[in-house]
Amino acid sequence: MNHPRTLRVDYDQTASVMCVVGSELNVNLNRSAPPSSKFFSVKCTPSVQYSIIPTPLKESHLSPIPLHGKSVLLIGMSRASQHENDSKLSIRYYGESEEVLGRAVLHLTAVEISLDVDADRDGVVEKNNTNKGSWKWGPNGHGAILLVNCDTERKFRKKLDSESEEVSEHSDLKDMTVMALRTKGPAKLPEGYKLTMHISQGDAESVRVFKLRSPDTTGNILKNLFYKYFEKAFPLVLSSKVLSQEVPYLGGTAEMNFYVEGLRFPDKDFNGLIRINLSLLEPISTGLPETPIFTDTVVFRVAPWIMTPNTLQPSEVFVCSTSDNYRFLKSMRSLVAKSGYKLNICHEYMNRGDRWMQDELEFGYIDAPHKQFPVVLDSPRDGKLKDFPYSQLLGPDFGYVTRMAEEDDVSSLDSFGNLEVSPPVTVNGKDYPLGRIIIGVAFPTATKGRNMTKVVQDFLWAQKVQEPIALFSDWLYVGHVDEFMTFVPAPDRKGFRLLLASPDAGYKVFRGLRNAGHGQAKLFEGLKDEEQKTVDEILDDEGLRGENNYVQHCIDWNRDVLKRELGLDEDDIIDLPILFKLVPDKKEEEFRALAYYPDMVNMIVLGKNLGIPKPFGPKVNGRCALEAEMCALLEGLGLSCTFINDFASYHKLLGEVHCGSNVRREAFDFKWWNLEM
Amino acid sequence: MNHPRTLRVDYDQTASVMCVVGSELNVNLNRSAPPSSKFFSVKCTPSVQYSIIPTPLKESHLSPIPLHGKSVLLIGMSRASQHENDSKLSIRYYGESEEVLGRAVLHLTAVEISLDVDADRDGVVEKNNTNKGSWKWGPNGHGAILLVNCDTERKFRKKLDSESEEVSEHSDLKDMTVMALRTKGPAKLPEGYKLTMHISQGDAESVRVFKLRSPDTTGNILKNLFYKYFEKAFPLVLSSKVLSQEVPYLGGTAEMNFYVEGLRFPDKDFNGLIRINLSLLEPISTGLPETPIFTDTVVFRVAPWIMTPNTLQPSEVFVCSTSDNYRFLKSMRSLVAKSGYKLNICHEYMNRGDRWMQDELEFGYIDAPHKQFPVVLDSPRDGKLKDFPYSQLLGPDFGYVTRMAEEDDVSSLDSFGNLEVSPPVTVNGKDYPLGRIIIGVAFPTATKGRNMTKVVQDFLWAQKVQEPIALFSDWLYVGHVDEFMTFVPAPDRKGFRLLLASPDAGYKVFRGLRNAGHGQAKLFEGLKDEEQKTVDEILDDEGLRGENNYVQHCIDWNRDVLKRELGLDEDDIIDLPILFKLVPDKKEEEFRALAYYPDMVNMIVLGKNLGIPKPFGPKVNGRCALEAEMCALLEGLGLSCTFINDFASYHKLLGEVHCGSNVRREAFDFKWWNLEM
Predict the structure, then answer these.
(1) How many CB atoms lie within 10 A of CB B54?
(2) What whole-number distance in Å separates Cα of residue A655 and Cα of residue A355?
(3) Cβ(B518)–Cβ(B535) below 8 Å
(4) How many helical (H) and strand (E) elements, i.e. helices and strands, does chain B have?
(5) Does the CB of A3 have a partner CB in chain B at under 8 Å?
(6) Facing residue for B35 by CB, picked from A31, A512, A549
């Protein structure tokens, strides 16, 4: 609600006054009364509405009413004027014996002004939503939404649209949020009045506003063609350089569209909220600034970057082609084809031998009622694949965002195999309908150790809608959470299972083999250049057992955190039979863990089809006991296990199927703005 | 609540286990059972408490219970151990025909660990407050409080205590918040276990933790003396360089105090909340990081910087002595003495001719249950008085804070005559028991104009407890809100009145004079070198009238904002009779306002005594009509008006009494943490 605006009224003068429909003018009657005034009366034309405070006893205000020290006249207008000064109000002042001492006359012009947005989030810019000036989460919430214009309309000489102060293509407008200025009133505003759109200095870092150039009204066709093709058809209205600019008043009943462009994602120093204001300015005199006499404000929230868990439908699968991974590629192609998705191959000229497609980037998306598109988060890892996200993924309706870190601050934990997201969960009654982000760090108690760099962590936390969980992954040589955990869809319970690598489960399988008389079955049988070990040798290796106790201990620590932070029960977790070994780090100061045989938890999840690193476990009757155990654990959930030989081209290079692939997935049906925060 | 920790238990082994009283251990019975186990039983010593999930039908757990796939044993300890491994629990596993297959034995050692703070804000560090891990505003809220250690214990070669990584004086500890580590258990922790205190990288920018050095237990008196006098008696535990450090476990029932020091005020990138953690670490093996098996966390909020409105009791008044202000000083000395406060004079060697004591600094304070002290906010104005706040005010229990801005960003609006604070108000049901900060800026719609610099605005908004209001002050030549408004105490209504400069009220006085036959009375009578004007001349000056209409318009705009944002009625406002004139700005591009005669609203408020610039208005029967009007308006509120001649030494230099003085005031009785946010 707009509070009444103080209006000065001088007696014996006629003043022209602008009034915005829905707002009120407050006249202090005593302040401008002629000396010795004791009474007053008020008269007006029909479209003027007024009230007097304190309420006079008399019903008619045409005859004198006693003037009090604090007598106030509140004036409003019920509808827009058709012509300037088409409404009138006069105040007459009287002396002791009701003689007229003076008379003030107001000529009133009323306009309707409304800066409008899609505050109810239905894709339509409604008129003057009462809640447009604030933002509220939830299905009963309100407030408009802005996308970071982080894609590019250009296919060549690319540049993020948000980095350009121009609307390069008409299609670029679709990434922006429409804001309408609706006005109603006389053909033009009274002399000197104007409309101004404005933002604060702080918000200007995060938003830009464009408008459609008004057609040349002189009817100069050439000029309009020139505008259309060679000049800016969409002039910039507001930016970090222009915090305030006049916008045209079109007259009559008019509507003008503006296009609002988000420039940056929520981050540590930006909560995502932006206000845009539209004011009516009143002229005073040359050399004096105009006074804002009415301000309408709309609020936007910049859409967060959202990650997609394994339970969402895949759209595209990405892998690298290298000189040595032909067999792997063939298996992946077959799995992806069988699952019915598209396989994208990043060729060697682009990947330059870097096969870790999972680590260089993370797929996500941004979503608004009017538009949704995928956005790749580019890791500060910057391996030889570093150009791939920008040069191959960024494009029309495919956004890009990154966070730059000092080279010294970047470790293996900044690879995005160390950035995952859970399916939707409910934890102690709190819903996370978009799941929770999961990252790996050093123990919070560690005096040294590797960590995910602060700029990326700050970014992830600031998105808010998938509140992150920090796990302990620094115990791993490579250090990624995808080395010990993943999620698969399930038809029952919470709709998914958490799969965890488990040395205990591994030893159980090996002990079972020995007990069943297969102590001489061999791990890695058939793999040349690989030392083969029998089940007995593995079970009798006390050192290995100790190392795996430690690994189980580390995983259990994370298991406890995941149970607590995702609200999981034991039945939501499946322990996969995987053994690890410890190896000294590069400085030979500490020992860290690597999978002993292909790390089956590091799988690709394509709907119900799982592409699992082939473990080359001991065989019983020709069948790998580890594969058999995996199938036994997972097939009951309707999942289909495909074992992919990644031994030479991935496992020996310290990664597996998941590390070497990436999946872009469909967005959630759930809309992030419907979250209750 | 601490969730149960997963514990691995191997059969046919005896394991030593640490358990923190109040936490639970979760043993997956099936995971570590011998192959073919079908039943189990549990036995323990009295201080061990356990439960089995699913709950077995049998009452006695000494005889075999069926082993399920997901059987879980939850173990807790009811009290701290006196000796290592003084409690025991054993699990026996049985086969199909109840033959014993294996037995796991746990030797348990229990400790009590509690990191404690004054979470209930009563000045006492209570034991293990259940709410210590979160922060909540309000009288029913909780969470500990930290002060920015922004004073200095040193009187010479000063440096902010927060800028030093040492506790220089014992008294410095009083500015810190005590945090206690309380432990109970055996004389020492089992081999390899240790306690570690830790903070996150983000929090480490804002906090430091010290402890008292433990006395040398060898009884070496010299060594202890050495520690006491020559070495750090209070070693640094945590800082931006050390995020995690081991802290001693003292054994038995012990309590160790830590001292927590706040390093920076809430700001745009810091919400003021800080977490400190204490973990118990379990050893694994050389070369492997210890695992945190229990973590206790406490939360602090850094106390905001709070301003003091005119309605609070003064403690000290500050003015500058210059070569030309002897008479002014004398009047001020007399007023301050009469009011019973202390006058501090800043001498010329320090002020170097800069007399604008109001503009260089703003007094405020910080407050915690254990300590409160004044803090000066130093303006980026940095006139010749710039060294005064640091070199003269900063001291023991007198803090200092500033915000640096680029020289180009600093304008006259950064002087703190442009930073004021209202008395406590309630606005549409929302309480502001500490009032609201008021600053002056350009119109939000202005395309050019001066503003208060962003770093200072960000700081003020981030303090949160006195939510700022931005007024329009750029219409003034000097540009400070104290040129058109102030607050005075009042015995009735809201406890105060807002005083506003009002040209309309001024003209009313002048018209009244003419009507009463005093049209020839002179403004500035008796002032040499000043052009004297008669009442008639003033009233007949159409240009002046126009300029004052504009000024009234600007003030009315602010009046509307103040009424809305402070929830004021007309009766809460008094309009003071003050005329302005417009003068061209330095570039002669725009016109801005200056007071035509001494600006009476720019007064010093010392309880009920007001020190008002002497207006030199037209005299009637020897009495200044403007002074008479001021007294008539204010004395009814029990206020006493003293008119101070500041004409030559302040008014002619474009300031008045308020600009040339500053008042340090007592803190609010209301505690900021009791605010409902």
Answers:
(1) 10
(2) 10
(3) yes
(4) 10, 42
(5) yes
(6) A512
Contact by Cβ (8 Å): A167, A234: yes
Q: Do A314 and A333 fall within a single domain?
A: yes
Please give the Cα distance from B552 to B675 (Å, whole number): 36
Tokens 């031998």 found at:
A353
Which region among A521-535, B47-61, B190-204 has the lowest average model confidence (pLDDT)?
B47-61
Residue found by looking up tokens 């906010």 in the block: B377
Which two structure tokens, joined as six digits, stand for A314? 């895949």
| Integer Rg of chain A from CA | 34
Residue in A671, A662, A637 with CA at minimum distance from that of residue A495: A637
CA separation for the pair B419, B359 (Å, rounded): 9
A183 CB within 8 Å of a chain B CB: no
Question: pTM, whole model, 2 decimals?
Answer: 0.92
Domain carrying residue B216: 117-302
Question: Could you give the strand order of the β-sheet that contains A485-489, starting from the edge strand earlier in sequence?
Answer: A485-489, A496-502, A573-577
Give residue A232's identity as a one-letter amino acid code: K
pLDDT at res. A493: 95
Q: Please state, as a whole number, how many other Cβ atoms lie within 10 Å of the Cβ of residue A155.
A: 9
pLDDT range class, residue A51, cuts 50, 70, 90 = very high
- Residue B169's contacts (CB-CB under 8 Å, 6 or more residues apart) are B153, B154
What is residue A452's DSSP assignment? -
Instruction: Considering only the beta carbons, identify the residue of B6, B508, B563 that sits closest to A560.
Output: B6
Q: Are the CB atoms for A449 and B284 separated by under 8 Å? A: no
Q: Does B165 touch chain A (CB under 8 A)?
A: no
Residue B345 has which token pair?
Answer: 């004079």
Find residues 50-79 of chain B whose CB sits inside 8 Å of chain A.
Answer: 70, 72
* A31 and A91 Cβ atoms separated by less than 8 Å: no
d(CA B356, CA B373): 24
Q: Domain boundary at B111, B130, B146, which?
A: B111
CB contact under 8 A, A475 and B285: no
Q: Are A67 and A30 in contact (CB under 8 A)?
A: yes
* Residue A103 sits in the same domain as residue A181: no
User: Are B85 and B127 in a shared domain?
Assistant: no
Strands B144-146 and B5-6: unpaired
CA-closest candidate to residue A671, choices A277, A368, A227, A241: A368
The single-letter DSSP state of residue A392 is I
Q: Measured between CB atoms, does A227 come within 8 Å of chain B?
A: no
Q: Verify that A293 and A194 share a domain, yes or no.
A: yes
Distance CA B81, CA B59 (A): 28
Burial status of residue A476 (CB atoms within 10 A of its CB: 0-12, 13-18, 19 or more): buried
Map tokens 């006058």 to a residue. B343
Nearest to B559 among A6, A269, A287 (CB): A6
Tokens of A103: 């008379």
Q: Using CA atoms, how far apart are residues B119 and B112, in angstroms rounded to an integer?
A: 19
| B667 touches B303 (CB < 8 A) | no
* Whether the Cβ atoms of residue B627 and residue B634 lie closer than 8 Å to each other: no
Q: CATH number of the domain that B15 lies in?
A: 2.60.40.1860
A154 DSSP assignment: -
Q: Which residues in chain B have their CB less than 8 angstroms from residue A28's CB? A: 570
pLDDT at B219: 59
Q: Specify whether B11 is located in the same domain as B65.
A: yes
Region of A581 on the Ramachandran plot (φ > 0 left; ψ -120 to 50 alpha; else beta): beta
- The answer to whether B92 and B103 have CB atoms below 8 angstroms apart is yes
Domain identity same for B295 and B422:
no
For B506, phi then psi, to 5°, come to -65, -50
Domain match, A534 and A491 both: yes
Phi/psi for A424 (5° steps) reads -55, 140
pLDDT in tens, B373-390: 999 999 999 999 999 999
CATH at A476: 3.75.10.10
**Per-residue model confidence (pLDDT) at position B589:** 76
